[in-house]
What does this fold into?
Amino acid sequence: MLHDTRSTLSKRERIVSRKLIETLFGGGRSQSMVAFPLRVVYMLQERTANEPPVQLLVSVPKKHFKHAVDRNRVKRQVREAFRLHKQALHDALPPTSQLLLAFVWLSDSHSPSVTVERRVVGLMQRVAERVGSETSIAKRED
It folds into this structure.
């Protein structure tokens, strides 16, 4: 299946289902890594028809930013960085798999957009490497 080459972030590409969120954060199959001020939690699963290859969730806890305007700014920075660089994840994924990604903000202060973008891209590259190696190991075991 060909991927959408436009750099957009549609509603379908966001994790909104409570069930998916609980699977991602509660399940034992998810993995995580940190590049301060962000933590990424991700999980690979079978892809069903009409589902996007990558789905995203961005969480900025109220504990870190009391005002919604501050939380929204950070979420916007993370979403924008993801949107611009998501193609690397699409390329690393096998066509039958779906990647669920959640970025969680860990800092009590704002960061410049350039820094946020660098951290998001770094985490996405590390996730792409791990996902690529996991799928090649799974193929060898079959």
